[in-house]
């Protein structure tokens, strides 16, 4: 049997909607920001150890929180149902 639907009327079964992809992109951006903050900057003198820059609040606390928040956003984007 031949299908009576034309190509414009064809239904597409997509798993994700455009909004899901936007949420995924936002979650990836938050995670990248967290990784960049964790990497930090370079030392002025590589022969001198500066514990203030290595153990800063941004590297130890804020960056991992941003990475975890990005993962939560990614999970939300995957489980979010597209609107019909």
UniProtKB/TrEMBL annotation:
<keyword id="KW-0472">Membrane</keyword>
<protein>
    <submittedName>
        <fullName>DUF3098 domain-containing protein</fullName>
    </submittedName>
</protein>
<dbReference type="Pfam" id="PF11297">
    <property type="entry name" value="DUF3098"/>
</dbReference>
<keyword id="KW-0812">Transmembrane</keyword>
<feature type="transmembrane region" description="Helical">
    <location>
        <begin position="60"/>
        <end position="79"/>
    </location>
</feature>
<dbReference type="InterPro" id="IPR021448">
    <property type="entry name" value="DUF3098"/>
</dbReference>
<keyword id="KW-1133">Transmembrane helix</keyword>
<feature type="transmembrane region" description="Helical">
    <location>
        <begin position="21"/>
        <end position="40"/>
    </location>
</feature>
């Amino acid at each position: 049997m031949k299908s009576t639907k034309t190509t414009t009327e064809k239904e597409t079964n997509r798993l994700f909607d455009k909004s899901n992809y936007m949420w995924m992109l936002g979650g990836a951006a938050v995670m990248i920001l967290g990784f960049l903050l964790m990497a930090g900057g370079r030392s002025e003198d590589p022969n001198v150890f500066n514990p203030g820059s290595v153990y800063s609040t941004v590297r130890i606390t804020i960056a991992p929180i941003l990475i975890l928040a990005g993962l939560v956003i990614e999970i939300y984007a995957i489980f979010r149902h597209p609107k019909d």
